[in-house]
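Worked Example 4.2. Read the sequence first, then its structure tokens.
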Amino acid sequence: MTELNIKMTEEIELLRLVTVGSVDDGKSTLIGRLLVDTKGAFEDQLLAVRKKKGQEHHIASASEIDLAMLTDGLSAEREQGITIDVAYRYFATPKRKFIMADCPGHEQYTRNMVTGASTASAAIILIDARNGVMPQTKRHTHILALLNITHLIVAVNKMDLVGFDQAIYENIREEMQAYCDKQGVKNLICLPMSALDGDMVAVRGDNLNWYEGKTLLETLETLSTLGDIDSLPFRMPVQLVNRPQTVDLPDYRGFMGTIASGTVKVGDKIVSVPSGNSSTVKEIVTFDGNLDEAFAPQSVTLTLNDEIDVSRGDMLTHVGDKAMDAKELTANVCWIGDEPLTERQKYIVKHTTNSVKAMVASIDFKTDIHTLDHQQDADELAMNEIGQITLKLMKPLHYDRYVDNRITGSFIMIDTFTNNTVGAGMIV
């Protein structure tokens, strides 16, 4: 392992997770179980959601706790027994720290699920063993595949309600494996469990001895979080040009931003797009002091040896390894707006730190989530529908394909009148 990778291993000890699935598959209960079993819930939280009265100052066991209530924090969620908004929860083990997003299962809240999954490195797809694979399960799985989530874990939950029947689990596993194979998903893990009783969550339990794989928590602790982020081309969207104008720093000009991918070293030859002006890196400045080398996803300030034209929205790359640029692009879109997407409509495309006016040139097709077939000649994309569109831009956009770079290959679409986010796009 290189010295850089060792540094990255020390820095990136946090795994971002998302839980998805259909209604009542047990997502909130699962997170509650993980919080309890990893000691991630405070005593006052446990007392607040206890099922029984009588023990005012102590929770005797997890059976006394309404696990779902640990994450369903909105009053409407408690009243209806459903998850409406994305709930983020933190827990940790001696091996790793986690941030898990509990996403809504209802179709009308799919837009919230897209938000929760957009920054995740791994996803847990819960399936109720009694109901099998539901339409919303397929919709969420397809979105996760489009988002290029590195690790997908299919957790067949509520096995206690089907007598821990191995045949039921195997049927669901085979169906999900076939569905994911069609989309080119490579890292699929399937396991049975009971979130309510705790079998195969943090401990094996006594009821699923026929399953020889790891528990869910063991699986999460051993997933790779590094990927190939250090080997990707260097990309740094400029967020701010820092000109302090002080007596001590009369000529200081620093370009601030988060490194989207790759690495940069002092002395590297870099170019700013779209201007095409180039220079070499003079300093890599951070809050903790200057560095000789920086890597994604660090936030840094770069100073250059030459005064070149760089503004917010520009992108810094290595010379000879620039991003693609075009005034027309094709993208897969998850539509989350109340009003449908139609041809000739105008939107603002927000890509990294850049915003560009755009028009929908064509709707190439929308996808049938059940068969993954492309339905040609679509007139519109309604809320929660997924399809491929072509956009014409007012000025060139500098980007990578989404399959090559999740940061520089993604964008959101903003309604020009309401300023609402209405679409999440992945550049093809």
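Now turn to a second chain, presented in exactly the same format:
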Amino acid sequence: MARSIDDLVDDFDLFEDWEERYRYIVDLGKKLPPMPEEEKTEDNKVRGCMSQVWLTCQAVNDQHGDGGDTVLTFRADSDAFIVKGLIAILLELYSGRTPKEIAELDATEALRKLGLESHLSPNRRNGFVAMVDRIRGEAQSRLP
């Protein structure tokens, strides 16, 4: 179920310093459901990430066939623990939303509100943006 940015901010506010927040991010990544090996293909790779990142998207609940009540669910994995945690944050924000909701959600605001923007290396920030671009691209391709 998708969560709001403010819900995630509340979670992050429970921790006093960034070392604890990093551990929390890594723990979130460890809780991601495993991605089947057969989905870790070149087509599912997210370009622009220093680490290996794979992402798949599935549209569900389109009962009328018009895309109006379709929600997108995402599955992703990485070979880096911190990146898996960032994926978990993105999936909490985006998975289970409609393409329109995804298109309207500002991940840079989430990055800023969570304080990640100033605590991630430039390469990690670029990878985060690449993952968001991929998710938003999946949503855009499903808009009417």
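Notes for the reader: The chain is about 50% helix and 10% strand. The chain has one domain: 5-140.
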